[in-house]
Amino acid sequence: MPISDEESGKYYHEQIKRDGYAPLPNCPVCHGAGFVHPIFDGKVAFNKIVSCSYPGCIVESRRAYQSGESFLKQIGVARPEQQFVNFEQYEGNNESYAAFYNLAFIPGSPRMILCTGGAGNGKTHLCNALAIELNRTMIVRLFVFAELINKLKVAMGENRLETDIEFIKTVQALIIDDVLEETLTPWAASKLDEIIDARYRNERITVLTSNIDMSKLPDRTYSRFSDKRLAVRVINMAPDRRPML
Question: Is the confidence at residue 137, as pLDDT, over 90?
Answer without folding.
Answer: no
